[in-house]
User: What shape does this take?
Amino acid sequence: MSDKVFICRCEDLTQEEIEQAIDEGFTTLEELKCRLRLGMGPCQGRSCLSLARRILCKKTNKSTEEIKLPPSRPPEVPVSLGTLASD
Amino acid sequence: MNEIEKKADIIIIGGGVNGCSLAYQLAKKGKKVVLCERNYICSGATGRCGAGIRQQWSTRENTELSIKSIKIFEKLEKELGQDIGLRQGGYLIIVHNNKDMIQAEKNVKMQKELGLDVSILTPDEILDVVSILDIEGMKAIGATFCPTDGHVDPFKTTHAYAKAAERQGAKLYKFTNVTDIKTKNKRIDCVVTNRGKIKTNIVINAAGAWSKQIAEKLNIKLPNKPFRKEILVTERVKPVFKAMVISFKDGIYFSQQDEGQILGGIPIPNEISGYLTNPTFDFLNHMSKTLTRYSPKLKYVNVIRQWTGYYDVTPDARPILGEVDEIKGFIQCNGFSGHGFMLSPMVTKILTDYITDGKSSDILEKLLIKRFKDKEITHETSVVG
Ligand SMILES: Cc1cc2nc3c(=O)[nH]c(=O)nc-3n(C[C@H](O)[C@H](O)[C@H](O)COP(=O)(O)OP(=O)(O)OC[C@H]3O[C@@H](n4cnc5c(N)ncnc54)[C@H](O)[C@@H]3O)c2cc1C
Ligand code: FES
Assistant: This one.
């Protein structure tokens, strides 16, 4: 077992990788998304975005209100192409 | 935020793939470059696009530009010292009727003259390339295929350009909005931003779908119009095909990424121009219907996300490049009409040569804004999405 702390399980991202990207200058959740695919997995960030926000707050000395969550993109839950194709 | 520079040789407006590539190339030539991006790098069309790269076009200029661009993409990872996610699985362009086959044959002939490895496939050969397609469902009579077309990761590429630009001394300012541009004696004099003024004699308008507003600040009228474009991605499934499948008639494009997700888009009928951002159910429905008609096996695959971005569309679907006649130092790099990612390596090289050495080229001359004053314009017809 390694002592890595996973923040985004869908995209296999550790706390360390997120902190490193913040140090490189990716200082909003939107930018971390672009840089690391944070929150782009099957759960669409449900489990990881608020955890990542906490790391961002701590590292950039900002309050949670100051750090916006990226706009949520539909669909709410995964839907099959077959279902979506029906009239 | 820190103080910004007070002076620069060149100011680039827009931190998409084109702005960042320009920043890199111009800084490498020793120019003092500032890039202003009102949001963050990749927040415009670049971060929302399909990032397919293809060389199969109907106009000579686009074919030439994209052949040369792909040659640059092939070497870019080495040049920038970072992975750009290049994958060359080919583009399969479905042909549905005899009339379109005549146009396809014409295109292929011209493309071959320019040295492209491209061929016409029979329905059986289509299935050799992408086995999950349904020939009857697609109503296909054949296809054209070029194996060196493919896909590049837009985030990786643009961030790699940005990093390399900074290494060359360029300043990239995010969350920096250009609010005005001032001239003196019909020459660019300075750029005004929310963080202060910057003196310069050269401004490059690489503001994507907002380029029109930038030009308006100088009373230059661009014919560009923004169109909302929608795109979706599915969950990851076992990788089964490598090519991008597209159809000019149905407007659809889709491909499978290395990790297994299927990504694609289609225009929704009767879309009107404007800055509309919300994703629609009409798109989901139309895309799912067409995609499952092309490949019924995909019925069981789940869509996990849909989003929108803008195409910056010109009357002939070709970009506007180069200096305007009215104001010295005001340079356009916009109007990409939905294919500005794949053309970016060559377009930005042409502009860099023009700015640093005063060198023009045939392609640049043909893509100046002046062309809209002529009566005859050559329309690019090989467009999807
Ligand atoms: C859904 C979709 C799919 C696509 N698929 C493909 C494809 O498969 N292949 C392909 O080649 N192309 C594709 N495109 C087109 C491609 O995305 C664009 O042509 C390309 O990314 C344009 O890059 P750019 O750098 O010119 O502009 P953008 O990436 O749009 O960047 C312009 C930037 O300018 C900034 N800006 C605007 N106004 C100001 C201001 N006043 N001050 C400061 N900054 C400002 C914006 O915030 C923005 O970040 C697609 C586009 C969409 C929307
Ligand atoms: S845990 Fe990050 S997207 Fe699912």
Chain B has a mean pLDDT of 96. Residues 96 and 249 of chain B are 8 Å apart (CA to CA).
